[in-house]
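Title: Prediction job returns without error message
Component: structure pipeline
Severity: low
Priority: P3
Assignee: unassigned

Description:
Job completed but the reporter wants confirmation the result is attached to the right record. Sequence as submitted:
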Amino acid sequence: MKRLVVKSWLLLLYFEFIMRFSSFKRLHAIVRNQKVRPMDKGCVPSSSELCHAVDLACVFYVKQVLCLQRSAATTLLLRRYGWNAEMVIGAQVLPFRSHAWVEIKGTIVSDMPYLLEMYQVLERC
């Protein structure tokens, strides 16, 4: 588990760097272009274990982690371990809010399951 937390922490750092010094377009392209790696099902951590590793990495991160940063990192980590994850970006009109989360086969794995009732999906990648 320690190894997964360290990998998650490094992904959070990577996406903070992208968000700070590049653009949303670049972050979107990185997530979109990360292919699902085929893995032997016997040695693949569960999606909940991988999401928990990201949760722990957020606790140890040097500053507050934004939902877009967290969702991008979670999506990449899941895909690297063979899970067909999608980063989803949604918005609410009144009051205006936006949020990002991760889904596997239409099920939210990185956040509260009722988000689809609150946010209109704008993008999936």
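Comment from assignee: result matches the submitted record. The chain has one domain: 2-124.
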